[in-house]
Amino acid sequence: MNQELLEALNTLEKEKNISKDSILDAIEQSLIQACKNNFGTSDNVRVTVDHETCDYSICLMKTVVEEVMDDAEEISLEDAHKIDGSYVIGDVVNVPVESKSFGRIATSNAKGVILQKIREEERKVLYNEYYQKEHDIMTGTVERFVGRNVSINLGRLDALLTENEMIRGEHLRPNQRLKVYICEVKDTTRGPRITVSRTHPELVKRLFEAEVAEIHDGTIEIRGIAREAGSRTKMAVWSNDENVDAVGACVGVNGVRVNAVVDELGGEKIDIISWDDNPAILIEHALSPAKVISVMADPDDKIATVIVPDYQLSLAIGKEGQNARLAARLTGFKIDIKSETQAKEDGDFNYYEEDEYEEYSDDPEYIRDEDAAEDKEDAPADEENAAEAAEDDRPEDEKETVEDIAAETPEE
To answer: Are residues 167 and 183 in the same domain?
Structure first.
C-alpha cells in the first residue's frame, strides 16, 4: 500500500472536496505521458492503479523477437527468458518499468499533468457549488474596493459588486457583512466569476422568504415586485389560505418582519399590498397610500385612468412621480392619474356630490363649508342664549318665573 499517496489524496479530498478517483485517473494519465516522453511512444504502455491502496504499476508490452530492431516495442528471446523461461518467439511480454528511471523532463511533465488536473477539479467543484446559489442570496464580507466597484468575499471565492449594482447612497466599509443577490456564475479558464447585486428586485423577494415562514412554505405568494433601490419598493402578495392575512404576515407583529428587511436594505421604504386579479382593484391598491375615487382599466391595451380627490393628487403621483411609476411597473398598466376637478372638466366621469366621496378624506381639517355654516347657525350665540335655550328645553312644571323667585326670597 502506498500510504503516503493515500494520505495525501484523502487530505486533498477533505479540504478541497476533490474526488480521490479523479486524481488517481490524473496520475494514471501522467504516467502514460511520462512513458511517452521517456520511450518515445505510449502505444504499448499499460498503467494499472489500485484505487483502494493507491499502488500502481507500469508495464511495457514487448514482442519477443530474434533480433531487436525497436527497443521500445521488442525484446530478445534471451531477455524474455530472464523474466520467464516459457516465452517463445512472437509472445508478448509485460516488462515492468520503474518510474524512478524516468528522466527529469518526463517527471516534470507528469507533475504538470497532475497539478493541472487538480486545478481543473478544484475549479469544477467551486463552479458547481456556487452555480447552485445562482439567483439566490448569500452573505458576504466587503473585501476591498476596486476602483468604483467592490470585491465581496463569499467564502471560497470573491464576487464583484459593480457600481451599477450598488444601492445609491449606501456607504460600504471594509469587513462589513451584507447580503447580496447572485446574478450570474460563469465558468472561465481562471476560475468561476460571480456577479452580485444589491439593487435587484429578487433580493427583496429572497429576504422576505428568509424572514416570513409563510412565504417559504408556499402559504403566501409574492406576485410582483417593483423597486427603486435605496428609495422605495412596492410588493404585491397573495395568500393561498383564506385564514392567513398576506399583508399582515409579511409585516409581522409590530412590524418586526418588514423592519428586518428594511434594515438590511439600509432603510429603504417598502409598501406591501394585496394582490387582486381584478386590475382595477390591483391598481387602487398599488397607488397606496393615496386614496382613489375610481379606476377605469382596459386589460387589452393595459391602460388605466385613475381619478383621485384633489388633495390626494400629489400623494398619488409621489415625489418626482415615484409612486405612480412603481405602481405602473407593479401592475403592468400605463396609469393616467387625474384629480377630481380635472376629471370633471374633461368629462371622464359624471358629477359626484361631495357627500359621495367625502369618506375618502382622512384629514381632520377637511370640513365642508356648508356643514360649517349650518353648525354655526345651530350653535348658541353666547352663554345667555345658551342658558335660555336650556331653560326652554325644561318641562313646563319645572320652569320658574321671576315673580316666583322674588316671592320665595326672604326680606332682610
So the answer is: yes
pLDDT of 78: 83
Measured CA to CA, the distance from residue 283 to residue 285 in angstroms comes to 5
Q: Are residues 44 and 137 in the same domain?
A: no
- Is 190 part of a structural domain of the chain? yes
Q: Is 161 a member of any domain? A: yes
Clarify whether residues 167 and 81 are in a common domain: no
pLDDT tens-digit profile of 57-70? 778 788 888 888 87
327 in a domain, yes or no? no
Q: Which residues of the chain have pLDDT under 50?
A: 1, 351-412
What pLDDT is attached to residue 6? Answer: 76
Q: Is residue 340 part of a domain?
A: no
Residue where a domain stops, chosen among 176, 197, 218: 197
Which range of residues forms the domain containing residue 43?
3-128
Residue 322 and residue 330: Cα distance in Å, rounded? 12
Question: How many domains would you assign to the chain?
Answer: 3
Residues 215 and 227 in one domain: yes
Q: Which CATH number fits the domain that encloses residue 269?
A: 3.30.300.20
Distance CA 299, CA 283 (A): 12
Q: Which CATH number goes with the domain that contains 149?
A: 2.40.50.140
Predicted confidence at residue 106, as pLDDT, reads 66
In three-state form (DSSP H/G/I as H, E/B as E, the rest C), the secondary structure along the chain is: CCHHHHHHHHHHHHHHCCCHHHHHHHHHHHHHHHHHHHHCCCCCEEEEECCCCCCEEEEEEEEEECCCCCCCCEEEHHHHHHHCCCCCCCCEEEEECCHHHCCHHHHHHHHHHHHHHHHHHHHHHHHHHHHCCCCCEEEEEEEEEECCEEEEECCCCEEEECHHHCCCCCCCCCCCEEEEEEEEEEEECCEEEEEEECCCHHHHHHHHHHHCHHHHCCCEEEEEEEEECCCEEEEEEEECCCCCCHHHHHHCHHHHHHHHHHHHCCCCEEEEEECCCCHHHHHHHHCCCCCCCEEEEECCCCEEEEEECHHHHHHHHCHHHHHHHHHHHHHCCEEEEEEHHHHHHHCCCCCCCHHHHHHHCCCCCCCCHHHHHHHHHHCCCCHHHHHHHHHHHCCHHHCCCHHHHHHHCCCC
Alpha-carbon dihedral sign for residues 287, 290, 291, 294: negative
